[in-house]
Amino acid sequence: MAIITQDMRFRLALIKYADKYGVSKAAARYKTNRQYVYRWKRRYDGSWDSLRDRSRRPHHHPNQHTEEEIKLINNMRRRNPHDGLVVFWVKLRQRGYKRSITGLYRFLRKKSLMPTKPKKPKYIPKPYEKMSYPGQRFQIDVKAVPSSCLVNEAKGQKFYQYTAIDEYSRWRYVEAFEERSTYSSMQFLEHLVKAFPLPIECIQTDNGMEFTKRLSSGNKAKTPTIFEVRLKQLGIRHKLIRPFTPRHNGKVERSHRKDNERFYSTHTFYSFEDFSKQLTIYNKREYNRFPIRPLGWKSPQEVLNDFIKYGVTYV
């Protein structure tokens, strides 16, 4: 339904008043001029549409595209439907087109000839392998502590949070370090093995230099890090995810996002000892004892305890 504006109602009242009392009195009553009254009286045919404002858009322009240019653009667009504005303009220029790129853009917008982008194939994730028991596979990653959390003596320093998550129970172990290196990774691994009450079969990490030299150039790529050497000594398999694909380490990546929301956004640290203490308390109280939906609203510590108490043990 077309909208009847206040201007249209004003014009109808003006016309009716002029028909009853005359044009001069109508112009004085509605504070306008006689020409305005005559114009709308001539235009009014009894319908609301006749009282609408007409388009002020010009019917033609002295600099508008010629028929030859329009034909060239249509032919080129039909043969190059996916070319962007710049590429399309350059191709037209090579065929004698003289207009500016802004003029071409306005014409393409007006005629709905903007490039059509081909649809990207929809990403279908592969079903992730589910773990059958605790310790079957751990995800490990490193998070740098935000500089905004460091105050007083700790300001300007760099602290790191090493995180390990059991994929079956979501039980998490974290530890604070002052450097991110293969030595720190090796120390964290040894502490993790002692803290977890069951054997660990596999460790999954990204391709960071603190874990592996796989992406290094030259002979360094063939040299195992002390982290990898220690894994081999402990009989733990090391699984590396695909490069530049952090979603394959999704559980530990998501836990780091939750750390930003629950921990780092509300805490400050005065020293490394202060950071290490607060991190340990937070992980024990707020993470391992916090119920989550993937575990049927049980906490990771409850799931791990239930498996040790009622599950099948293995060697």
UniProtKB/TrEMBL annotation:
Highest taxon, organism lineage: Bacteria
Signal peptide range: none
Record-level Gene Ontology MF annotations: nucleic acid binding
A Gene Ontology biological process term: DNA integration
Span of domain Integrase catalytic: 130-308
SUPFAM superfamilies in the record: Homeodomain-like (SSF46689), Ribonuclease H-like (SSF53098)
Pfam family, one: HTH_28
Listed name of the protein: Integrase catalytic domain-containing protein
